[in-house]
Amino acid sequence: MNTAGSLTSRVSLESWFVPSDLMAFPFNYGGHRGINRYRGDYCPAPLISDSFREEVLTAAMEASIPTYEGTLMWNAGPCYETSAEASAAVKMGADAVTMSIMPELIKSSVKNIETAVLSRLTNYTPNVKRGSVSHDEVIRSGEKAKSTLFGILGRL
User: How many distinct helices (H) and strands (E) make up the chain?
Assistant: First the structure.
């Protein structure tokens, strides 16, 4: 579980996002765009397990918690995206963006641990909502997620 910024207004804040694909920015992290489809010495297993991802989606549905699907972009951070960066991410096909999860997924792949990603959409990026993102806003939104997170995890 992590938090992410929504790159589009079609997804409401304080929603859960279950990515079906990942991309890394800068793209040289792992060397590939659409890194979830990469296999080899660097990532011997998929970064997102299709079966575990389906279990997460089913658990959310059973808990009557809506989810959104799409592509999650990883940005090394530690900073929030500028409007230009967020607009570029949209043009590259991303639906949400986060500063966490990619290093953990790669390490899990190396250890052959099946993973899925569940992201709490805590804020809109500046291409959607003008102005800067408040870290306090992100923390508050994340805190509100506890009950729905426990609803999903309890069914997993």
Answer: 5, 5
Q: CB atoms < 10 A from the CB of 45, how many?
A: 16
Q: Give me the helices (H) in the chain, please.
A: 50-62, 83-91, 102-110, 135-144, 146-155
pTM of the full structure? 0.85
Rounded Cα–Cα distance for residues 22 and 104 (Å): 13
Does 53 or 130 have the greater pLDDT score? 53
**pLDDT in the model for residue 42:** 56
Q: Which domains does the chain have, with CATH numbers?
A: 2-155 (3.40.50.1580)
d(CA 107, CA 122): 25
Task: Calculate helix-pair angle for 146-155, 50-62, nearest 10 degrees.
Answer: 120
pLDDT for the residue 39: 46
